[in-house]
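ingest -> validate -> predict -> emit
validate: passed (alphabet ok, no gaps, 402 aa)
predict: started
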Amino acid sequence: MERMEHIGTYAVERVLGEGGMGIVYLARSRGGRAVAVKVARPELARDPVFRERFRAEVDSARRVGGFHTAPVVDADPESETPWLATAYIPGPTLSDLVTTRGPLSEPALRSLGAALAEALQAIHQCGLVHRDLKPGNIVMAEDGPRVLDFGISRAVEGAGLTVTGTSVGTPGFLSPEQAEGRPVTGASDVFALGAVLIAAAGGSPFGEGTPMALMYRSVHQEADLTAVPAGLRAVVAACMDKEPQRRPTPEQLLDAFTADGIVSPLYTPTAVVPTPSPQPAIPHTPAPPPPPPHRPAVAVPPVPVSPAPPVKAPELLAMDRKNAIVADGHGIAFNRKGKTLRFPWYRIWNVDRTWAGRELTVHIGLVDGTLLSCKVVASTEAELFHWVSKLDAVVHRFRLAR
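emit:
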């Protein structure tokens, strides 16, 4: 996507960030106010269902005001590339804050949890589900955390689109039902809130690894709570429950985080007396070197060569409530009723697949003659054929390239 100079009436200053759904720009209104403008990717813009849902989400997002989020100030769902403008909230993201200052203390985690629960309460009351709550989407403003970046994610999910290299949500923070492609409710945001608190405490909910591996763990493994202070571990564990109906509501989380009636502020404003800035010294400019004795008649500048964009390696995650199949650059893994078997490509002689109805069975033969198989059931025929296509691409890329 090319850099834009104007989006609607807003003058673009710089790129704030880029993700699978689009690019976020820092821009200025004609009156000089700073706004953050998110522009959808061209492949999304070409889908009429996306535009219809995006329009509805913008209308809902306008109702989420107050101090919970960055208020929506403008949008154009009919533009060649639809965009959404919100007030620009200065401050570090929670991700940046933890990286630079370290994990939050237990009182600060309680305050963060209460603020995020209150934000989700406001979002859900407007009929929205965020779907991508994570440390990078939370700005730690002076007056408290602000939740950003909702609207496009739900429109993408509702349109049934798959954007190359992306998923709706962020692996490591998305809920099991998102990973499995099941219906999503506000309980998914509560799961993400628990994962955010683990990250803010200095932990990693499901460790490190590829997006496929993180999605797999969110469904089949328990979150790592060791970094969470003991006093908060029970409530965070409740947020991370695999079953959506067993997770607490934002209202119940507010009660839990404010049980003593006191919430410590994450920031303590301090009066600062400005001091005059020293005048910068005038730099010394050396005299230019003398010209060469023989100047070429025509100067031919070197031609810059732009590197080709990296091609994302194919990978597969196919799973149901009992079994899972993962195929990527490392090999193939079967998870059958909680037991995981991993096979690197150098051990695999042959890969075959069969399907009937919505049931996919993957068969592998090892170089030592061992034969194994694993079966998963898709939620729809479209998902089944997506799995088959992904598996074929992985096998063609890695096994045949041995």
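The chain is about 30% helix and 20% strand.
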